[in-house]
Amino acid sequence: MAREKMQLKETKGTFKAVGKVTRIDKDNAYDQDTQTKGEHVGRTYRKLRFGVKTSETNEITVQMFAYEPKDVFMWNSKLKEEDENYKGTRKTFEDWEENQEQYREEGYVVMQSRVGLHYDDKNKLVSKGVPKFVTAKMVYDNLNNGDFVTVEGTISYGSYEKDGQKVKTKNFNIEKVHLAKELDFDAEDFEEITYFEQQFVYVDSELNKTDKKLYITGRVIDFNKKFQDAQFVIDFNNGEGGVDEEMKQFAENFKKTLKFGDVVKTFGDNLNRVIIKKVENEDNKKADILGSLGGRSKPSHAENSKTYVNQLSINGVDSLDEKVYREADFVVDNLVEGLGGKQKKTENPWKDDVSSSSDEPIDISDTDDLPF
Hints:
CATH 2.40.50.140; 2 domains; 3-stranded antiparallel beta sheet; 5 helices; about 40% strand
């Protein structure tokens, strides 16, 4: 007897970045407008997008999008202690805006997002929960380029068409923003924090010994059970052109152990950095001839080569559940079932059967994800 089709379960991804605010002064950093298409036509929305520089060479772009809410959900732990059947409290957005301070004093907490953008008279950071719609404007109004922050949130994946080709995207969606102490990227004890955790369904992987990387195709499933294939990397380059033997062994074990349908929870570094290498002139004779012609020396920046790295680099595994899904679990139901025929299979991991769709008007720029 054939096994029934497995119900897809959400695979969650989260991130944390600590660093310096950048690009919040750009024209497209913040916007408030009215939706003109989709099921939310007529609703007011706000969107926010800025950079967080986590080191001298790494910068990620974080964002948020939210509609003006009709209601605000709040939680009160004291009421839960008094009544085990307490399921939370809902108030209209207008009511919450007018009475939010009173609600906080009474122990109510908004669960959507948290902000900490000011210090009290005792130099303690004031953190409070607010709706995401409010967070977007608060962050934009109170942060400036050069401020240091801790940003936490969720990771989502999508795609769009460009010149007839499907381009994969990953978004780092803000849920918490707190001021952080100033960092010295050049200090000896500086430790970069650009962290992520991601659960995904293992699809396939390819070991590239030239790049010194294992390229992994992982299938992520959103809250609505739509799925998208994304790329992850185990990087065993030691940073000096050699091999990190520990990470190489990890990559080989990962490829050998995991099979299609396994669900794995990973953690690692969210990298969006530029690597600058000095180009050595190996033809000394030719260099001498050119030098004898005179003129000024070539500027040092022109002698360097730049390599951009944009990847979710896996450092380890938190958990592994084997044989959770089969390929048939990801077959999209045929909308014209009466025609019959075979079911479509996902043989090519980079060809999506279902791509995440949204009517959220987030601008996409070719250069927004480049660190410099």
